[in-house]
Amino acid sequence: MIVDVLLTTLLYTFAAVIYHQSVFVYHAGIVSLIVLGVTVALTVAMTAYMMMSQGSQGAAHQDDAAPATMDSLNMTQVREGTTVALTYGTVKLAGNLIWYGNFRSKAQYQESSMGGGKGMGGGGGGGTQRYISGYKYYIDAWQAICHGKVSLETTYVADKERTVSANSTTWNDGTMDTYSDRPGDNANRLLGVAHIFWYKWYLGKNKTYMPTVHYVVQKELDDTVITNANHADGSSNPAAIIYDLMVNHSGFLSDDLDIDEASFQAAADYWEDRDYGLNLVFNSQMDFAQMVRKVLGYVDGILYQDLEGQWKLNPYDPTATGTVTLSKSDFLDFKMARPSYEGTPNVFIGNYTDKDMDYTRRSVAWRNDANVAFVGEKRKTIDLSGFHNLTIASKRIAEIGKRLSYPAASIEFTTNLGFHSLELGDVIGVSHSDYGIVSMAFRVVSVSLEEIDKNQLKFKAIQQVEAMFDDEHWTSGGSAGSGINTVVTPFVNQRLFELPFSRSWGHDPAFLVLAARIGEETGLSLMFSYDNVDYNLVDNFSGFSQHGTLDEAYPIDTKTIDDENGILYTPTREDPEFATISRSELFATSRVIIINDEMMTFQTVTPEGDDAYRLTGIIRNRLHTPRQAHSVDDDVWITNISMQNILPAVKSGDFYVKFVPYMLETEGEAASATAIHVTTEWKGKTPWGAGRLVGVRTGTSLALTIWPYTQDYSGSGTEPEDSYTDQGPEFPHEGDFELVYGSTTEYTELTQKTITIPVGATTVVVKMRNYGMLSRSLTLSVGAGDGTYIANQDVTHA
Prior knowledge:
The protein is mainly beta. It contains 7 helices and 50 strands. The protein has a 7-stranded antiparallel beta sheet with strand order 33-32-37-29-31-35-34, with no helix packed on it. A hairpin with a 2-residue loop joins strand 42 and strand 43 (701-708). Helix 1 (238-248) runs antiparallel to helix 2 (261-273) and helix 1 (238-248) packs antiparallel against helix 3. The radius of gyration is 41 Å and the shape is elongated.
């Protein structure tokens, strides 16, 4: 049986990388190339006229099955929009079927015995019968593979490596004149496309489908000025790939391209030294910028045009040193930000292509154990498919992991035109006394000329953290430097802070566990004792706090929301880190500052001096803790209140605790931990007190009005303006009030009461009473003359 599929028209349309298109017409045996630009993508539209003829099957057994026809043949073939891949280095990719025909079948025969034998009274019989057991199928097929010129290294048929015979195929590397004429008069060499023609391809016995074929091809960049363009392992240098894309596949006219070849060569030398050769397949339509981003995504670098329009390539070399140093006086505007460790990944999985394992996908891993110990495991998958070597993939994943698991600082600044020579990728030194940075290395990633009419330039830069790390790695992934010191030492800074009432934990005693890490501790075991001798485990906690000391005295009389003074402190260690939040987040945040007995929250964090920070947007006396004056060198604690650091109401009275640190599975010794002596103050049962007193004096008569703070209403100044509830004397409250004036002490449930006071100046002290507990006092100073006297919680609560 012979069946032909004749393609009378085969139209190849190449989609340009950017801006332009090219049309490749293949028709009636004539090939013409209409150049409108430079191309990488191929779409195929086919009009097929099928001329089928079925010959005699010969003298077959009447029960024989008929052979399959073209109608039942399953073919994976090219469709409109399918691209012809552009490759670099050595890659494995599937071919696209663009023609098939000459479908043949060959009957396979099998003999079976007819049976028989000798019976009573006569002779015997027997013999064999020949019948068709199936068919072997063959076909001619034509496949387009990729953009040429490439060499054919290996062929995989149905995922099994197969040697290609020159007698059974016609190969064209994209530049040759060789092609098969079997498709008919319309056959041609398909200039610029590597392709292969299979003769009498054996599909198998009783198989009517064409198996998937993969080709391993290698592209050598010969037409380039870049030395080291082709690496010894068959990969392509990233700088040479970008150069080839620009000159041959960008849509630009190469004669008009102003390329700084020296920068490309320097980049090529750097990546050659790193053994960072790439093996890439571009098999979808994408513009030039996308293709460059894909290349640089594997190796880190930047392609840009300088102010004179010259194209330059700059790799991110960690050994690069600063070209200039800018100090505080050079900045017209300066902003700095640094993410916290909570926002960094710490476990990295890199998927690469292993050429020694039939070009299958394999993975390498790297983890930052110290970061994992801080914030828990956070994974990130990295595409390393352009690398085909385990050693190189391991080195690259370690390099990426070290950089991304560190919270790199970023800056934005405006400066004068004196720094116009700075270009993208340049490393600069930065010193700024307000932010406590001295000669810190940053890499320029953005230059804006939008205010050049004002003689100003705007820059963005990121910290050159890659210079901070070594190049050590393990070949199987991981890093020789990723281990942590598991020696556990007792905490130096620790505190157990009794919490006032909150609806979250109620009236029973609850405590905030405050401990500052010394090393890479992952948690602490809280041990409890009534006699400071026998200790028992209460629970394990993993929420750590930042400790520091106050650098400026913080007065009692700041505004309830303090945006002016702020708290200036120096952290013992910036761990955990705290960032600036929005105003709306300020009222809902769970993070607090604790100094002495006062709890506060804060909005903004601003570096100041060498190591200090100023916190502003301070809301004072949160949860109605006492507003206090704080002195220089007072301890400062900053923490997030969560179930990871709250000891619930399980202990009370007079007791001792020890914080025993542990790191992963290594735990410290309770005997070496410092004991903390605690006496329960029953803050959860203590009323919050009054927020305002107003007294109107007429002679010895004082009309007193009390504004109580209850534990259900937080009041003005501690909630957003559109959601707080004002207190008033008519509001319900818990318990009653203790009034002390002159030599009189009395109790009342009324919020408005007239009392008789002595002649002359006097004071009235009011406390709320509930659960047998008295609140802090609010004192009203009453003058000798008639008039209205007012006391507010802000400055007179004690």
